[in-house]
Amino acid sequence: MRPFVFVNLAMSADGKLSTIERRQIKISGNDDFSRVDMIKSDADAIMVGIGTVLADNPSLTVKSPDNIAKRKNKGLDQNPLRIVIDSNAKTPPDADILHKGEGPRIIAVSDKAPQEKIEALNEYADIFVGGEEKVDLETLMEALSEYGVKTLMVEGGGTLIWSLFKSGLVDEIYTCVGNCIIGGENAPTPVDGEGFIKEDEFPKLELLSLKKIDDGALMRWKVVKDKKH
Ligand SMILES: NC(=O)C1=CN([C@@H]2O[C@H](COP(=O)(O)OP(=O)(O)OC[C@H]3O[C@@H](n4cnc5c(N)ncnc54)[C@H](OP(=O)(O)O)[C@@H]3O)[C@@H](O)[C@H]2O)C=CC1
Ligand SMILES: Nc1nc(O)c(N)c(N[C@@H]2O[C@H](COP(=O)(O)O)[C@@H](O)[C@H]2O)n1
């Protein structure tokens, strides 16, 4: 058993998540930020990789007071369970994700994470340990399911999203295409990592919806399971 996993990302019209400096930038507009806040608020958990924590220092909190109130009325924490994928326990103990907003956090580390760093982070978050070098995402998903997580939103970055696709762990992806060009051959893209080589390995997608949002476009894709072309 594993949660339903959906990825949400914003990219430029030329397919970049950020600049070559890998700093946090605004790609989508206000309507898209409202949409993201809503789907985040409806999710049981939200996940990012350590690359995103170090680059963006996100809090991953629900922002809209209405969305917070709806969660509270349902007896939920203000924010979904926040999860960082971080083999070496490099999450800074003063990171916003550990301090802003109420609600549980999990730092998922591998067997090689130094014990003293685990202990420091354990003051603010539960620690999942799994995987020899990198975090074992499949085992983590099973653990999250046992924890009661039915829907998991993944906010990036491209390295984590690659691993999730490689392991067949993505069910849907929302792609917001902003009206700008970023460029740079080393700028991050939605799916980085090693990349698929053979066409029959490519995850196949079905377009569920396509609409204009702000001055860009929003696509919602379903990952087609076990379909080869
Ligand atoms: N526009 C958008 O929507 C978004 C943009 N971004 C941008 O993306 C960039 C960050 O992305 P990126 O650098 O790819 O980092 P990621 O956030 O994808 O984190 C990747 C890191 O996670 C760790 N990790 C541990 N286990 C695994 C595993 N099994 N699979 C994959 N990764 C694992 C690795 O580091 P280690 O081995 O040290 O643990 C790895 O380098 C930033 O520039 C950020 O601004 C990010 C999110 C959304
Ligand atoms: N939807 C969206 N649009 C953009 O333009 C973005 N740059 C991002 N980035 C993601 O949002 C996170 C910010 O989280 P907080 O506001 O700090 O809670 C950031 O880390 C990226 O994951 N997303």
UniProtKB/TrEMBL annotation:
Pathway terms, separated by semicolons: Cofactor biosynthesis; riboflavin biosynthesis
Annotated catalysed reactions: 2,5-diamino-6-(1-D-ribitylamino)pyrimidin-4(3H)-one 5'-phosphate + NADP(+) = 2,5-diamino-6-(1-D-ribosylamino)pyrimidin-4(3H)-one 5'-phosphate + NADPH + H(+); 2,5-diamino-6-(1-D-ribitylamino)pyrimidin-4(3H)-one 5'-phosphate + NAD(+) = 2,5-diamino-6-(1-D-ribosylamino)pyrimidin-4(3H)-one 5'-phosphate + NADH + H(+)
Signal in keyword set: no
Domain Bacterial bifunctional deaminase-reductase C-terminal: 3-217
Species lineage: Archaea, Methanobacteriati, Methanobacteriota, Stenosarchaea group, Methanomicrobia
The enzyme's E.C. designation: 1.1.1.302
Protein name: 2,5-diamino-6-(ribosylamino)-4(3H)-pyrimidinone 5'-phosphate reductase
A GO BP entry: riboflavin biosynthetic process
A GO molecular-function descriptor: NADP binding
Family, per entry: Belongs to the HTP reductase family.
Keyword NADP appears in the UniProt entry: yes
Root EC class: oxidoreductase
